[in-house]
Amino acid sequence: MQKNTNNKVEILxxxxxxxxxxxxxxxxxxxxKQLELEISTLQCGGxxxxxxxxxxxxxxxxxxxxIKFKANSLICNNSKTIETLMTE
Length: 88
Known about the structure:
This protein has 88 residues and is an all-alpha fold. It contains 1 helix and no strands. The chain starts with a helix and ends with a helix.
């Protein structure tokens, strides 16, 4: 008879421990979901920043091309002016 009582106590103890594990697992799952949301938010923000940087880089490339073209044009114009002045 005593053995049966010990088994019931062990079963109750095991049940209590399993309930605690279940609660801990649920808390971990909630934390993981929250972390997943935060990571998703950071990724969206990071992608937006990358897109912004890509646009700025593109604008800088166009600006540098424009500056180079104007510089070449000025060099050509100055050469013609110098040649014209020398021949006159």
